[in-house]
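*** Residues and shapes ***
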Amino acid sequence: MKIPFLKKKIITPKNTKYNIDYVLPSKIIGWITSKDIDFEEIRLISDSITISKSKIDIERVDVFKKFGFNLNVGFILNLPTDKPSLNSKKIEISAYSKDKKYKFNLKIYQKQNIKKTSSRLLNILSSDILGLDGHFDGKANGGGSLKGWVSSFSKNAPTIWLNLTNKDSIPVRCSENYFKKEKSNKYFYDYYTEIEDIPINYSGEVWFSFDKEGIYKIPQDNLVDIETIDIDSNVINLGSKKKQTDQTNLYKKRDHSSPEIKEYWDYIISNEEFLNNIEQIIDNKKRLSIGKKFKIFKSLLLKPFM
């Protein structure tokens, strides 16, 4: 879509304030407010072609309290779902006045050259994570786990990255099970991580990102700090929660069974717990004492007769 000819007019920078809050694989979130100009539309432009556009009409009380001017100055600029064909390396985020006579280019990094903004936009528009969205909800289960959600246009569960200060990021696979929301063509996946499963000694802030480098941070409402100790694991597979669900289902079946067969359910549950314990020891590669080895060996011998 070609942009109509714009008559150049000077906008005083000191009377125009803005910020790009988030650059996500699915959208750009931010605001722009001005004492001089009533901005109405935000566009993503490459070589005079509009890639996407949106109204500037979201209420931002925080911005209004700080600068005054106007209240509805926020925007959410959705990115395309498919990688666009770009003929230019110059990509702009531009705000337009109602009469389209005024144009103001926004920078992702306000203290850096506008080329940095083009480079960042070109990176996300050509990335395999284009279209992903999500949220990091914070701690759950009394502070023992981290949880959130990710949405995608794919039925394949995405992998996101757990970030720790001055540490390598850790891959986290989302749940294989997805759910859909009304009037949405995206698939929603939960991710749920036990803090004790994080495979390093660490105390400090954590956050999630869509990419390994941590450039595209998953939005969150509050800072999250954790403290954990080392266990032997490289990938946190949230699908392992299925074992806990299966065991919970066994208890439910026992509770709803007749008194005559409850003792058989108790036997099944006992065996399940025993096998899960052995599997956990093997998974964690624990070094066992001779006494512990003898106890397990004795249990294996006695189990068939119990």
Notes: Residues 1-8 have pLDDT under 50 and may be disordered.
